[in-house]
Design brief:
This protein is an all-alpha fold and 285 residues long. It is built from twelve helices and no strands. Helix 3 packs parallel to helix 5 and helix 6 runs antiparallel to helix 7.
């Protein structure tokens, strides 16, 4: 018969990322059949004057579970954190003390969520990042927001990517808009599509013996120095002529200034944060 035994590593809390630790610790305690002891905080059964053996056994099991749950919490925190709960006599009290100290009250949580949302909106993709690295950074912030119980739709991440990625992804986004409804594209689909740009770049680097950081950068700088003098009469962007403009023939939305759709179909309509970013930046499409 196959064994059902398995070992779990107890998560350790050192003072940072309390919400992540609390979720892991709750799962651990459930696996140990101890979470109910913390959640309910039921007082130990009071034994009558002449208790039966069954009553004594039940009382001892309750006391053992409570002691075990408290011991688990003690073992799951660093020495510095332990001092704040070492006087707690029940696992429920210890758990509540940690929650109050490190999660904070409703006002504190609201401020933390607002700071995370501000950090999300300020993110811009760096030149040496791949699209997957950039999205991973965005999702790290999003997941922290969600840990506070705040909803954060994946569509907002999609919108953020579309308005904040560098110009090298323009042609790919333009072709996506021609072939798909960008208002319905999923985050996974968008990342996979834009990753093709990074893969082609990597292949070119390998073909050039990895010299893109030096030789190809110098060539691109020279190319930019000459091409930047040219301005497209259609989209008014610097670096290409009207005959080479990928936006030529496409309608332009007067709300977001992007090409490829009309204002009535604008997916950013009503989103003031996204619209503000679009008005500050050059249109991608």
């Amino acid at each position: 018969m196959a064994s059902n035994n398995f070992s779990l590593s107890i998560p350790t809390f050192k003072g940072d990322h309390y919400n992540s630790w609390a979720i892991k610790m709750k799962s651990y305690l459930k696996a140990m059949s101890l979470w109910e002891t913390i959640e309910s905080d039921v007082e130990l059964t009071i034994l009558p004057q002449n208790p039966t053996a069954a009553q004594i056994k039940k009382r001892d099991e309750e006391a053992a579970r409570e002691a075990k749950a408290l011991s688990c919490i003690h073992s799951a925190v660093s020495d510095g954190i332990f001092t704040s709960i070492m006087t707690c006599e029940s696992p429920k009290e210890a758990w509540s003390t940690l929650k109050e100290e490190f999660e904070g009250n409703a006002k504190t949580k609201l401020m933390q969520v607002l700071n995370l949302k501000r950090e999300f909106e300020m993110q811009r993709m760096k030149g040496n990042e791949t699209i997957k690295e950039y999205v991973s950074k965005l999702m790290s912030i999003v997941n922290q927001i969600r840990l506070f119980g705040e909803s954060f739709a994946s569509e907002r991440v999609v919108d953020k990517i579309l308005v904040s990625v560098p110009e090298k992804y323009e042609s790919k986004i333009s072709s996506l808009e021609d072939s798909k409804d960008l208002s319905k594209i999923t985050l996974v689909e968008l990342v996979n599509a834009l990753s093709a740009v990074d893969q082609r770049r990597l292949m070119r680097e390998e073909e050039n013996g990895g010299k893109t950081e030096g030789l190809l950068l110098a060539k691109s700088s020279f190319a930019k120095a000459t091409s930047n003098k040219v301005q497209c009469n259609h989209c008014h962007k610097i670096g290409h002529e009207e005959k080479d403009c990928w936006n030529k023939g496409k309608p332009q939305c007067f709300k977001c200034k992007r090409y490829g759709h009309l204002a009535k179909n604008c997916r950013f309509q009503g989103d003031e944060e996204i619209m503000a970013q679009l008005m500050e930046a050059e249109p991608l499409l």
